[in-house]
Amino acid sequence: MIWIQLFWEFFKTGLFAVGGGLATLPFLYDISASTGWFTTQDIADLIAVSESTPGPLGINMATYVGFKTTGLFGGVIATFGLVLPSIIIIILISKILDKFKESALVQRIFYGLRPASTALIAAAGLGVAKIALLKLDVFEETGSYLDLLNWKCVLLAVLIYIGLKKFKKHPILYIAIAAAAGIVFQL
Fold first, then answer.
1. Is the predicted pLDDT of residue 101 greater than 90, yes or no?
2. Which residues contact 23 (CB under 8 A, 6 or more apart)?
3. What is the pLDDT of residues 28-82, one digit of tens each?
4. Domain locations in the chain as residue ranges
5. DSSP assignments along 49-118, one per residue
6. What's phi and psi for 134, nearest 5 deg?
7. Rounded to 10 degrees, what is the CA torsion of 160, 53, 120, 41?
8. Model's pTM, two decimal places?
9. 155: three-class secondary structure by DSSP
10. Is 39 helix (H, G, I), strand (E, B) or coil?
11. What's the CA gap between 110 and 153, in Å, rounded?
């Protein structure tokens, strides 16, 4: 029964998460809240693992959740649930898009999807930033604004951002640096 639910949750995610891997995050928060399979803190770990491993982010996240929930078969089921809508949609679109690609309605649909994708990705990014950079639990206890930010993580994020913009090295280098900083500075 849980495998059917796992497939269904990720099928819905794959069907409606337009915009790539980060667009799946709002759906993961919803799955977390409705099923209890994982916590919001687990989502931060899930993102870190998914970003650090080869492959598309959304697929890595689905595989991780499925595996964490019910093992290897769960990973396969969740991943299949996530990609099946894309396969179906791509097949359908490829059959009809050539006939309608000049249609004003089709163009408007695509222009409407772009801001929706942007909003989903922005919401996901802000959710990740909240988990990674803020210490809301400590702030609620102390009430001190100095306790609100996880200063080590904020500094690391700023340095990695500057490094990305200034030196334009491969993302793997920055992932390795962040992992090493996490170990050395006990982030």
1. no
2. 17, 58, 117, 120, 121, 124
3. 889 999 999 988 888 888 888 888 888 888 899 899 999 999 999 999 999 999 9
4. 2-100
5. HHHHSSS-HHHHHHHHHHHHHH-HHHHHHHHHHHHHHHHHHHHHHHHHHHHHTT-HHHHHHHHHHHHHHH
6. -110, 150
7. -80
8. 0.62
9. helix
10. coil
11. 37
